[in-house]
Amino acid sequence: MRIWRVAGILFLIGAEALLYGYSYPFFSLALEKRELANWLIGLNASLAGIGILFVGPFLPKVIDRLGIGRLVALLFAIPFLSFGAILAFDHVGVWFAARFVMGTCFSAVWTTTEIWLNGAVDDRSRGRIIAGSGTLYAICQFVGPLALGLTGVTGSLPLVVAMVPLAVGAIVSMLIPSTEVEADTTLDEHGLEGAGNFRIAIAFAGSLMLVAFMSGIGETAMQSLLPLYGLAHGLSDAAASRLVATFSLGEAVLVLGLGWLADRHGRRIVLIGATLIATVTTALLPVAMGRPLLLEPALFLAGGTIAGVYTLGIVLIGQDFRGQRLAIVSTGFGMAYSAGSVIGATPIGYLIDLFGAEALPVAVAAGFLALLVFLARPRAKRAVPDSP
Q: Which CDD domains match (predicted)?
């Protein structure tokens, strides 16, 4: 039974990743066709992550009351209806409202399936399965922009294509047994719910919250604004979407390797190394544009290391926490990532309007440089075991 539960959860993670990789360039390019300013396109991307900041603190309690399977099914069904609303009412206001709703659901299903998977696997295989889920996520995310290249960004076809995996995901969610995870994530009666959850998550795993926050800034800004970066350098829509695909391909290949290195050589040194590579490769993009032999490896390494930093955090959470704390810290991690997504995309889009396209790689590299300085600082003794 456990193997089928894990396989089903991995399927849902893959479906959500496919939609993530598909929807970010889709919304950016489709809104660019409407001649919206870059900061508005960045705002649209920010709306995709802001909702989890409001619903995230209550996810553990909702999981307990609805059941994790029914909740995930609902989180797939609502974006299905949101894409349908865009299809029925092609208005900019609907595009923004639907992006907020479906972004909230995508962020919540992302966090919830991570809780589900961490509660379903055993300690012996946790690292391999979590890293494998990261690779699966990256592969499906890589397919998303390629699918967009086939469907285009205008007309009803890209919307209909996005609705298919949402419908399938809702059905699969209802078929997966979820009793064990619900038992693990049931809240106690000591106030570990609501807005206080994020403060508890910071107390348990403060440095991991910062890792999630910076990963959110880097990954969301790159995923949503790389197509615009490519267009600014004279690329076609399809070629601009392939920049995101190459970025995502790095996740598919490198995440497993980073997990293996962390098991062999220690999580702190691997986390610092991944952050360093993310900083350097992102900073190289202005030099690499127009030089495919340099651009492709730089995007590949940047995507793999940014995703690897996030994945290492998830492994650490599953390793160090169980039951209520697993749900609370996982939710806090997702909220920190989403906060980074919200803070990152809109200001960076505005910086692009002010200073040009090169503001994207420069701003992201600066953020990871700051994280690198934080991680490389001398460590004081900590009361909790999860800090890297």
A: MFS_YcaD_like
